[in-house]
Amino acid sequence: MEVILAKQAGFCFGVKRATHLAFEAADKKGETYTLGPIIHSPQVVQRLEEMGVKVLGDVNDADSGTIIIRSHGVAAEELEAAVSKNLEIVDATCPFVKKAQEHVESLSLAGYDVVVVGDADHPEVQGIVSYATGRVYVVGSGEEAAKLPRMAKIGVVAQTTQSFENLKDVVYACLAKGGEIRVYHTICDATAVRQEEAKALASKVDCMIVIGGFNSANTKRLAEVCSELLPRTHHIETASQLDSSWFVGVEKVGVTAGASTPKWLIDEVLDRIAEIDREKIG
Ligand code: SF4
Fold this sequence. Notes:
Layout lengths: L1 E4 L7 H15 L4 E4 L6 H9 L2 E4 L9 E4 L6 H9 L3 E4 L3 H15 L3 E5 L5 H7 L6 E4 L2 H5 L4 E8 L5 H11 L3 E6 L6 H13 L4 E5 L5 H13 L3 E4 L15 E6 L5 H19 L1
Parallel strand pairs: 1-12, 2-3, 2-4, 4-5, 6-7, 6-8, 8-9, 10-11, 10-12
Helix pairs in contact: 4-5, 8-9
The structure holds iron/sulfur cluster (SF4).
C-alpha cells in the first residue's frame, strides 16, 4: 500500500508551544497543574499526569505550585485568582488567542460594544468574552447577528477557529446595526489549512485515517470533511484502534491528524499500517 501523510498533520504552532511549555514545567517537578486539559489529546494529558501534572477544574483547588494556562486560554477572573494566590503561572495561551482577548479588552475600554463570532459554549470564547468590560455579545452566525440591538460603536472579533465566511456574514449583519464598526481579523488559518489538505488527500486515496482526540473538535471536523468525500474514513486516537479489515483491497491510504495530535501518535499509526501491509503480503 502507498501511505500518504498530509504535510500539515498534527500539532499547530499554538499547541506545539503549549505542549513544550507544559513538559518543560513538568520536568522541573514540584506541584504542577493545568486548568482543564492542556490540549484536546487524552494521550498527551495522560503523559503529563504520569509526570505528576494534575488537571484542575477550578483554580481554587490549588494553594501553591505552578499552574499552566492551556492553549485556548482561560477567563480573566481565573488568571486573576491564580495571581492572587501567588501561584507560579506558565501562560501557554496561544498568542493568536491572546490577541483576540486583548482586542476585546481594548475595544471595551474604548467604548465599543463587542461582538464575538464563535461558539458561546467553547472555553476559548468564554475566555475571550471575559476580557470585555462593557457590553459583549456572542453570535454564531450572520442570522444571529441580525437579531442584535442597534449600537453606536461595534467592535467585532472572532474565535480563532471560525471560518472567514462566517466572520464576513456577521460583519455584514453588523453594518445594519451601528454607525461605527471596527473589525479585527482574529481567525487562525491552521484549522482551514488542515481541512483543505485533508480534502485533497481524501479525494485521491482509497481509505483515510484521521488521528486525534475524540474530544477534539478540529479532529472531528477533519474526519467529517473526509467522510463526506470518502466513506472509508476512520477516526482513531491510537494505533491500537486500527483494524486490518479496513485495508482490504486498498492501494492508497491517506493519513492526517488534528492540530492537537502529537507526532509520536502519528508515527505509531504509520508503523502499525506498515505492519498490516506486511501481514497482507505475507
Ligand atoms: S489552532 Fe491556531 S489559534 Fe488555535 S492553538 Fe493552534 S495556532 Fe493557536
